[in-house]
């Protein structure tokens, strides 16, 4: 599962994937643009998910991780609270401590699960008003290959201007603010939009 297909260097950080929680993995996959590269469907009993990546890992970064909560765990709880939609955006960095210093200045907050996950080189960021998490994974310098193309081009979210400013500073060009309505993602070369939730 550890796969690094990243894009858009920004202060030592790159976007790896965008994760969405869906009601039905198979139903969501049928709605994707024709010709999308769909990876192997896997079940992870520990987290209670069935999931797969969408996008070409050889040529694209910012892949789409599609997750269905099929058992008890944090994703089932998130689905019960918020329903289908954007769950998190994962970025990789070769300097977790330096990234953490940027977090201090940004007004993003460490999610409590980071107390456990930091030992494995992962931080989870959250903020009231920001309707998704940011997963930050530390990797060894030079162990990832940047991709110039990304499968998920942008995410259009309804959120207040302050929250958008905070989240957008971590994910420049990926998060597009809109006044209201459903969350949409722009996918693939054809820039097709797909609604979440």
Detailed description of the structure:
With 197 residues, this protein is of the alpha/beta class. The protein has one domain: 2,3-Dihydroxybiphenyl 1,2-Dioxygenase, domain 1 (Roll). The strands form 3 sheets. Strands 1, 2, 3, 4, 6, 7, 8, 9, 10 and 11 form a 10-stranded mixed beta sheet that branches. Strands 14-13-15-16 form a 4-stranded mixed beta sheet. A two-stranded parallel sheet has the order 5-12. The protein starts with a strand and ends with a strand. 34% of the residues are buried.
Q: What structural category characterises the helix and strand content?
A: alpha/beta
Strand content: 35-45%
The overall number of domains is 1
The average pLDDT is: 82
The helix tally amounts to 5
Total E-strand runs: 16
> What's the CATH topology label?
2,3-Dihydroxybiphenyl 1,2-Dioxygenase, domain 1
The coarse silhouette is globular
The oligomerization state is single chain
The CATH superfamily is known as: 2,3-Dihydroxybiphenyl 1,2-Dioxygenase, domain 1
Q: State the helical fraction.
A: 10-25%
Q: List SSEs in N-to-C order.
A: EEHEEEEHEHEHEEEEEHEEE
**How far apart are the first and last residues' alpha carbons, in Å?**
26 Å
Second rung of CATH, namely the architecture:
Roll
Major β-sheet annotation: 10 strands, mixed
Give unreliable regions as ranges: 1-12
Layout of secondary structure:
Elements: E1 5-10, E2 13-22, H1 25-30, E3 42-44, E4 49-54, E5 60-61, E6 63-69, H2 74-82, E7 85-93, H3 96-106, E8 109-110, H4 114-117, E9 122-126, E10 133-138, E11 145-147, E12 149-150, E13 152-158, H5 161-170, E14 175-178, E15 183-187, E16 192-196
């Amino acid at each position: 599962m550890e796969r690094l297909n990243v894009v858009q260097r920004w202060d030592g950080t790159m976007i790896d994937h965008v994760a969405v929680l869906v009601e039905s993995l198979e139903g969501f996959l049928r709605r994707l643009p024709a010709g999308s590269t769909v990876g192997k469907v896997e079940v992870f009993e520990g987290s209670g998910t069935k999931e797969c990546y969408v996008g070409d890992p050889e040529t694209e970064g910012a892949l789409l991780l599609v997750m269905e909560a099929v058992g008890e765990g944090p994703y089932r709880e998130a689905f019960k609270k918020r329903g289908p939609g954007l769950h998190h955006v994962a970025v990789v960095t070769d300097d977790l401590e330096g990234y953490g210093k940027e977090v201090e200045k940004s007004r993003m907050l460490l999610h409590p699960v980071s107390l456990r996950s930091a030992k494995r080189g992962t931080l989870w960021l959250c903020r009231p008003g920001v309707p998704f998490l940011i997963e930050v994974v530390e990797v060894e310098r030079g162990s990832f290959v940047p991709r110039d193309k990304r499968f998920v081009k942008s995410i259009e979210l309804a959120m207040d201007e302050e929250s958008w400013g905070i989240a957008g500073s971590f994910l420049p060009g990926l998060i597009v603010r809109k006044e209201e309505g459903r969350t949409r993602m722009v996918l693939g070369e054809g820039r097709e939009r797909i609604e979440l939730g």
